[in-house]
Amino acid sequence: MPKVLLVEDNEMNRDMLSRRLQRKGYEVVLAVDGQQGIDLCRADPPDILLLDMSLPVKDGWQVASEMKADSALRDIPIIALTAHAMADDRQRALQAGCDDYDTKPVDLPRLLTKIQRLLGQVE
User: Fold this and answer.
1) Which residues are recorded with the post-translational modification 4-aspartylphosphate (predicted)?
2) Rounded distance between C-alpha atoms, residue 12 and residue 91, angstroms
3) How many domains does the chain have?
4) Which residue in 80, 90, 95 sits closest to 50, CA to CA?
5) Would you give the DSSP letter of residue 55?
6) Secondary structure percentages of the chain, helix, strand, coil, to 5
7) 87 Cβ partners below 8 Å, 6+ apart?
8) pLDDT of 81-93, one tens digit each?
9) What CATH number does the domain containing 48 carry?
10) Taking the model in full, what pTM does it have?
């Protein structure tokens, strides 16, 4: 069962998305701020990271940049999750080190396709 680390500070978003992912067969680990997300990645690396970009302590932009600069963490795929839906926000997330980008509110089928692609589960 693939392990997803969901870093999301909004409790309602965290609860809703984690339950939906668990129903789809994913093990979900939760973090509520960017530093906790990095710490959990170091302690027990997930298969993929779903990263809110507006987080306390360290925001998603900092987390992605730090992880991609760390040889122990750089291979963990990161999907940025953000309510920022402008074209330059997508580009900024990719430049920070995210492997993909998705907007909130989350469209689960679209997000699952991105997760499966990054985990090599689909072509």
Assistant:
1) 52
2) 27
3) 1
4) 80
5) -
6) 45, 20, 35
7) none
8) 988 777 788 899 9
9) 3.40.50.2300
10) 0.95
